[in-house]
Amino acid sequence: MSFIQVEENADFPIQNLPYGIFSTQDEPRHRIGVAIGNHILDLSVIRHLFTGPFLSGNQDVFNEPTLNRFMALGHHAWREARQVLQKLLAASEPSIRDNKDLRARALVQRATASLHLPANIGDYTDFYSSRNHAVNVGIMFRGKDNALMPNWLHLPVGYHGRASSVVVSGTPIRRPVGQIRPDEDKPPVFGASKLLDIELEMAFFVGAGNALGNPIPIHKAHEHIFGMVLMNDWSARDIQKWEYVPLGPFLGKSFGTTISPWVVPMEALMPFVLPNPVQDPAPLPYLCDKDNYTFDINLCVCIQGDGMKEPAPICRSNFKYMYWTMKQQLAHHTVNGCNVRPGDLLASGTISGPDPGSFGSMLELSWKGTKPIDLGNGQVRRFLKDGDNVTITGYCQGEGYRVGFGNCSGTALPALPAE
Questions:
Q1: Which member of 75, 133, 222, 224 is catalytic?
Q2: Catalytic residue at 222?
Q3: What per-residue string of b and e applies to 315-327 under the rule 16 or more CB within 10 Å gives b?
């Protein structure tokens, strides 16, 4: 228990302690904080209290405007920081609790803070690691007999995304324009996407990286995974459909990717680890791992459109449905010698469960636009309308506590008028 009151079903108890970057009106400087209940603990104020062997000479990392330098210190430093934080915030620890001056400077009401991207994201990679999703999309476009491409069961398929358009929760997303081909018997036309979609995803931040030419072996991959966020990888299905052959996603994906602001450390998620999925055929040795690294994370997607009094859930899924694990993704990403760096973002790809209510995209929920998605009170969708606000939430349920991720939300804005 913490000396800071936390409600039972709140996202940020002492068992969580996610990292983020925040500012306030009184102090606009971006700085590192840890969410606890309805507060943020300002680590720049208490950096002198990190006196262990891995942090005593690196206290200045908590005075940075991003998490990159802290991420780069590696898993021993992350574990030490978490131990210090859990001790300082414990109900029995007086260091902050009984120091009125320090407590007043170090604790900020979350409601008064603005949240920012947690890291300077140098590179962003999006995987395609949900078998249910891959099969659904494959059936739609290639038929049941050819749903999975020949390589899918042998490696974590991915593509290099656009880091510059990754934004923090609350940032509106402009409906993109580009080439679309609504009539397959006619040439393409230029215009606003009519099939704007969401993708329910999660992503992890790379901590300590690797040198160019030196792969990260799978048995050490967890030492390079700092923590996880929620993600909505917005997608323009009609732009993507026309452009993606032969080189894959481009303008249909690069216009916006939303992530939640709080990075939940992997140690907070380990109590919710599950056995890895059975993979048949067995992957090649460099992708084989005896340690479990699949997690029971409940996920929900809601839409609130103009005139709706409250959000309507359209999807309830779980991260446990992933086929390829994060360790496999990272090992595969670097097996060719590719170097990853602190703050790089690696995403899961759309997370879909086995039943229609757990499909993680509107493409699947509406089955390529052929079925209406009922939002209640006469509101239906097949794809997003302008003004729709999409919110993704996620949490792990413990005994008497919850490890949550906060919100990942964004509102679809109309396309800019053509000049």
A1: 133
A2: no
A3: bebbbbbbbbbbb
